[in-house]
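During the reporting period the student researcher (J.K.) took over the structure-prediction task from the postdoctoral fellow and processed the backlog of single-chain submissions. One of the processed entries is reproduced below for the supervisory committee.
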Amino acid sequence: MGYTVVIGLQWGDEGKGRIVDYLAESHSVVARFQGGANAGHTVSVNGEDHIFHLIPSGMLRKEVIGLIGAGTVLDLEVLVDEIDRIEKLTGVSTEGRLFVDGRASVVMPYHKSEDQWEEVYRGGIGTTKRGIGPAYRDRYARIGLIVADLFAKDLKSKVERALDFNNQILGSRYGKPPFSVGKMMDYLTALRDRIRSFVADVPAKLKQLEDEGHEILLEGAQGTYLDIFFGTYPFVTSSHTVSGGASVGLGIGPNKIQRIIGVTKAYTTRVGRGPFPTELNDEMGELIRSNGNEFGATTGRPRRCGWLDLVALRYSVLLNGVTELAITKIDVLSGIEEIKAAVEYDMDGERIKYPPITVDDWARIKPIYRSFKGWEKFWGTMLPVEAEEFVKFIEGELGVKATLVSTGKERNSMAKRW
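J.K. obtained the following structure tokens:
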């Protein structure tokens, strides 16, 4: 039984949480494989928005089992808060329904402090200041704490080792006071009993659930162009947001993944600094931002808005091995007389169909657009003729079928195009 993975094809904020929630109706297990509380997956039910930063979006459905893989970095306070919130919303205990890999890294208070001050020190690359980058750095430096360490007899010595490194950064680089071992121990011991019953071996648990016949959905955070290797470096996140990250982050063989759903908006957004070829710094950009409520679910920052970029999407499809498209927020473009999509880039007089590698080269490109006739307001889940033509053009350019097109915020506002 193959796994299904949901991937963002742009710079994040594509509506993956909304798609995961919809698919969770036919999947009994949802597993998160990378990132941390920098995610802001929004699910709208009965007119109310529910935002999740760590817990898999599908767990809003009370029968769904959720897993958080080793590839994530966990803010324990956020995790505990979301456990409490999901239990209140569903009326169902999360014990026996949520499993957190003991190998996952822990985001510590000093990581958040470093993230905040590094943004000031470097002039900012647009992080969420949630401590994600420093936590991943400590993991690769082999000094970071993992969830299982919270229950180790030598926890204090592990904290001392981590602080020896991090306090030097806080002091020498930023001129900030050190964090004490005692306070960090108090912080961890106050939280560990709350998460003890959720700690598990996620690869083994996934195998058990697979053998029991469960349909398993894998949920990523952020988007392809924020991938630490393949994104617009250095304006990227600190983990692998592409489909291959699901295999590494959850500990499953890549041959298990048979369905890869790439999520894209019908236009493009980006938060923070970095290249954005189709950005609209005009009234149209403001209109899209307003119509789409394009403000960060995690930070509240206004998102940069622009036309759909089929050049960037073409490469995302290649990188992720996308088998299906899910297009979100097509209704946001309703009422706009002329809609555009970039089909190629011009770089120094040469037309290219894939983005360049470096941000310096991204700065040299100019999008070449194709125009489309707009459509009026959506009614129900039927696509207006002009919107259907726009979707078919996207499919033709990318060589992938769009099986899902969301036509509104509510979980059932979805046009299925099998």
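The committee noted the following: Residues 155-173 form the longest helix (19 residues).
J.K. will present the remaining backlog at the next meeting.
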